[in-house]
Amino acid sequence: MVIASCNEAEKTPWPVGGSTATRTAPAQPDSASVANPPDTTEQISQYIRRMFQDRDGSIWFGTEQDGVVRYDGRKLEYFTPIEGFSGTSVRGMAQDAQGNMWFATRGGVARFDGRRFTRWSAQDGLADDQVWCVLVDRSGGLWFGTDGGVSRFDGRSFTPFAIPVPAAHPRYHPSTYPNPKLINAMIQDRAGNIWFGTNGNGAYRYDGKALTNLSEKDGLCNNFVQSILEDRHGNLWFGTRFGGLSEYDPGTSAGPKAFTTFTKKDGLTGDLIWTLYEDRAGIIWISTTYAGACSYNGTRFTCYQRPEGLDNSSVHSILEDASGQLWVGTANGVYRFDGMRFSNWTKRDALRRQVRR
């Protein structure tokens, strides 16, 4: 199973570190210990879109304007186009069986093999340079969700994977949501099905042979699916842009009875759901845009905003690390949760504390 192979004669990797001496930053108390720090203050970066912990224990922060940041428990390293990275905005991260890290960015796809970055774009056959999610399936196949639909990658070339495009929706103006081909999320469930969250056509399930659509007509709360999660019981959760959260029981025949929908009326603080995450205790975490974060224990929601220490209410990413520490990424930096309250975690904290492995 070769996932990360590519035609190196066509794609020249960029060595990491070759240009780092040219980058400077304003004098900061911790800047000498941060590789390529951004021109900001103490925040890791203002906007933390995604977070991921690799097999070595390093935590990666995907930012909106500072590329990707790696924290190994001792130092922070910033990777941007100067270091060969494919863009400044990171929307998705995954690790393959060989340990390579894959990134979905605003400038295409990047692979990091531990030493070098290799980049691919629409010029190489990718459906679009605006890439929103990446999936490494169980067979080692790579899938990328973009503004232009889905691309599959075999290590050498990209192949389009057709997802039906929704018709214009009378409730949503096309100038506000102009990308009907956009794929927001992809996961593979325990049965091997691959799920796609679309921008107006609900969710699609691919069983290896055919696509099955689940949408508002089947009981899904909204057709603009931002995130998908399979929980430990095998139920699917769909976070949507306009309708809140739906739980789907795949053991029930498709129809309204298969879905349970949660909105602000049920205890959520907002109906625009950005990210879903299940922690090791089985708690479902829901990040919202402009309304903080909520957790669901199967019975009720507990929500966190400014009174609980979450000073920024626009939450876009959630991660529980190998030690059980919960992290959230917001539109104003990184926060950590101690079981009761959130606290802002900055560059100064990163260099003062060790991540437990």
Structure description:
The chain is built from one helix and 30 strands. With 357 residues, the chain is mainly β. The longest helix is centred in the last third of the chain and has 6 residues, at 347-352. The chain is globular and about 50 Å long. β9 and β10 (116-120) form a beta hairpin. The strands form seven sheets. It has a five-stranded antiparallel β-sheet, with no helix packed on it. Strands 2-6-5-4-3 form a five-stranded mixed β-sheet. A four-stranded antiparallel β-sheet has the order 11-12-13-14, with no helix packed on it. Mean pLDDT is 87; it is low at 1-33. Helix content is 2%, strand content 39%. The chain has one helix at residues 347-352, and strands at residues 14-15, 34-35, 48-53, 59-63, 68-71, 76-79, 90-95, 101-105, 108-112, 116-120, 131-136, 142-146, 149-153, 158-161, 183-188, 194-198, 203-206, 211-214, 225-230, 236-240, 245-248, 259-262, 273-278, 284-288, 293-296, 301-304, 315-320, 326-330, 333-337, 342-345.
